[in-house]
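Sequence only, no structure available. Ideas?
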Amino acid sequence: MSDEAPVPTGAAQDSPGDQQRGARRRVLAAAGVGHFVEWFDFGLYGTLAVVIGKHFFPSDDPQTSLLASFAVFGASFVVRPLGGLFFGPLGDRIGRRAVLSMVVLLTSGSTFVMGLLPTYSAIGLMAPVLLVLVRLVQGFAAGGESSGATALLAEYATPKRRGYFSSFVDTFGFLAFVAGSGLVLLLTSVLSGNSMDTWGWRLPFLLAGPLGLVGLYMRRKLEDTPDFRKLEETGSVESSPLRTALRTGRAAMLFCCGFVVIKAVGHWSLQSFMPSYLQSTLGFSSTVSYAVTTVGLLAIAIAVPFMGMLSDRVGRKPVMLVACAGIVLLSYPAFLLMAQGGAWGALAAMLVLGCLIAAFDGASSAAMAELFPTSIRYGSMAIAYNLAVAVFGGATPYFSTWLIGSTGNNLAPAFYISVCALITLITVTRARETAGTSLRDV
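Reply:
I predicted one. Tokens follow.
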């Protein structure tokens, strides 16, 4: 007599395909929630740069306060390569899940602390010192996030849908930016008087605490990727993935750096530089500035998966090439429209640039993962990605603001964005097509 319980009449057992699809949905939810928390926390600083500048770097010249605020923003990017060097190879040794859990806990904790920091009026010079220290912790943790989440999703995806599945890294990242920008917009609209400037700005940072706990719970419930588990089963986990990556993956890492140039500049131009640009340079109200930014970022989040799907059909290179060429050609007209077209012109310009960034993001996440073998994927991407982000992304708000002040030309940031897009365009032309390949065949 069999010990197995009978299947009830009318009940059906899940097929292996259904189980795999269910597993991928759980992975997408867990990776997405954690990534959302990470970038909600990290992006808030850029959105609130003007307010933070007033409280931590008071000056008679608003431009000086804003530049100081953006300098601290950029400082957090300087340590991101160190975070990539630490977390990336660690993820190749002990697994993606464990490292991504550490990262989300560290980032959410440091962001929560930022909401509690005393300002310059309360403790003087110690206020900006503490702000810098907290941002450095955030930047160090962020060095392990994007590359780890990308590796996680890419390794769970099927080859024919890897572009679509991996693109949700950027979708959830931009949704986090939307949530941060939207929350700031809501608080700015409903708080009376100068409440937002005095204490309301702290509320979004304090939300990082509970959000971080949700992200940690979701990630701890994950199982590691099939590809990494295969390495463990066969005893093929690299004992020194950093050394192997530097010895065998240098060319691929250079391509990855090139891909990230416009990705980083585009993200931080639209998310962190744009709200202050619309307010301080173009003279829009804070409400209009946050509204334009929020709608633009939401459009990007919606468009990214469709672009990922397109890259699965036509290839990564064509999508990335068209996106880069569009940014090179349309950045200046978009900034001109933003400056001369009023609020609706600013929104239209934001949408034009956003759709081009969405196209590049939709293809690039899978393209980066496909450059490296599983044994060194996390670490190689983390190092290359964060080096490029540190050099180009973190400096974008500061450098763009400095360009305007130095040249007297309000449209000067458009030239910087176009040059960065040209760098990536040249890189993509020299890269091989990787869509549809097996990650184990890299």
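Confidence is low (pLDDT under 50) at residues 1-14.
Hope that gets you unstuck.
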